[in-house]
Amino acid sequence: MNCPHCDFENIAGADTCERCGQSIVDDLQPATDVEQALMSDVIGKLNPKEPIIVAPETSLKDVLDLLVKHSIGCVLVVADEELVGIFSERDALVKVGSRFAELAAHPVSEFMTQNPDSLYKKTMIAFAVQRMEVGGFRHLPIVDKAGHAVGVSSVRDILNYLTELIQA
Hints:
Elements: H1 33-40, E1 53-54, H2 60-70, E2 74-79, E3 82-88, H3 89-96, H4 100-103, E4 113-114, H5 125-135, E5 139-143, E6 149-154, H6 155-167
Parallel strand pairs: 1-2
Antiparallel strand pairs: 2-3, 3-4, 5-6
């Protein structure tokens, strides 16, 4: 089983990750088919969207134009192939708000959420839901083992997945 924290492949039946020491099992057993699917299906099953990636120095105006153009809720901020931030609609509303005209030329790095939580495609969907709930965010960057951004999963992706499960 792959660790949801560090993606280390552990021996089947292990309770804690041999690399990072985190628990990789939950003592609670799923009571329904939907709960079972959440605990066994991985984020890759959600078909994470390809991320729109910008550099930290990209202007706020250019980033907001991308959000509108692509009808998306966030962009990932990458420097030297490393995920360094995420900028979302919420960041625009909370950190910029009505000051857009005066801040439009400022770099997105001033407003992004730095060092966002990220997950692997092999991470269980239940873990992604937990991360979103605890962290209070709606978008999760998906990275490969090298830490390169390869996708974005959102609450909407999870709701669509749940809707399909319930209707099946």
